[in-house]
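#structure-requests
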Amino acid sequence: MNNKIKKASNTDTDRLAISLARAFDDDPVVNWIVRKDKKRTQGLELLFHSCIADLCLRHEQVLMTEDFAGGALWYPPGTSKVGFARQLFLIPKMIPVVGWTGLLRLALAMDKMDRDHPKERHYYLQFIGVVPEHQGSGTGTALMKPILDICDREKCGAFLQSSKEANLAFYGRFGFVVTKKIFPGKGSPPLWLMWRSPRI
């Protein structure tokens, strides 16, 4: 086990996407979005590959353990909103992830989740995941700490959307509190919106 954290680079994307797909294999909201057929595993990996390579990596806050056991996709203040041009660019990449029938569901869910972001300046944690055999080993804590330390230094908030009620206590240890419970789409599992004020 290696909880040493580094910033991910382009060469890490493939292996990190596989690890995150394994970490989110039983996630209710991700499984509501991703296709359910025999290409589901591939779809999961493509989802995280796109989130890393096409969205988050350019902001230089994709954190990972050196052994690829876990990763966290953080967005600095003002960078998480996906512009219209980039949305169009991503549509062909999302078809293998959600299937043709899932495109509208994904688009509406993304819009709903985006509208519920706080107006205050904040770092946004889109995903944090640890492969099953390393869960409970402190890897998640190691992935949270670097950005939360920045938040405290910059007196900046942090925001996330938890897709598992069981994880609320974990985030609560870092000072996150639930502000709202939403449903990103018709028939979807819930998301718990959580906010952390900086520690002065």
